[in-house]
Amino acid sequence: MRFEFKADRSCKVKSFLKEHDISRGLLAKIKYKGGNIWVNGIEQNAIYNLSEGDVVTVNIPNEAAYEKLKAVPFSLDIVYEDDHYLVINKPVGYASIPSAIHDNTIANFVKHYIIEQGYDNKQIHIVTRLDRDTSGLMLFAKHGYAHARLDKQLQTKAIKKRYYALVDGEEDLPQFGEITAPIARDIDSIITRRVHESGKPAKTSFQVVEQYGTVKLVDIELHTGRTHQIRVHFSHLGHPLLGDDLYGGSLDKGIKRQALHCYYLSFVDPFTNQLMTFSSGLTDDFERVILYLKNQ
Description:
Order of helices and strands: EEHHEEEEEEHEEHEEEEEEHEEH
Oligomer: single chain
Number of helices: 6
Largest sheet: 10 strands, mixed
Structural class: alpha+beta
């Protein structure tokens, strides 16, 4: 895959390309795995001295698939796709990546899709993940350089995700709120998390959209990406998610999985500088439980 840049100053090639998110590791891959760097159509190396106005062309070698990741057929709900990114609508019941207990995952499905489409780059690059029983939008990069170019946005929290959740609690919630509470692993579990001062900083903001008795439909924005962050924060407030029995949520109000759906995703495409925004409607089980609650 080739990318072209125009030098705006005199410097070494490697310094110039670093400004375009081409790391030392990627330069090594270009050097040793079949890539090339040209300056004004002549092949050069990473320490070549550029002049202002030089045209730098980079050929990044293709990525082979990870052999240990099995390709599994599945009908993906593709929301958006271009040469660099893939956005899908994730169904309930599938983990994002394989583990000791999950090998029928979204990563397996995307690998099969990439192979079926005959794409040159076959490695899987997940940019945003979702829990097994959370539905909604997931973002993939279609090659390593595309993933690297989103790293700055990941680090600065510029990739925005919003969720709908149904939470249940006797106490009132303010219409607008912010939860700032560190999240740590539970002492006696490798799965569950808890709010504890020893944890990593975590911030969640929310707005109550509707209320059905003690249940509230909330619109949530994540400002950090801790494991189980939304589930832990609302359980900490005394408002666990419906269906989330791992964190104290009720299973008797019409839904058996955590009532959590990623309905909004946005990022700036680093190749075009265009703001990309995507939305996803609620799943059938989520809409059914809202209808059930309205009729109570």
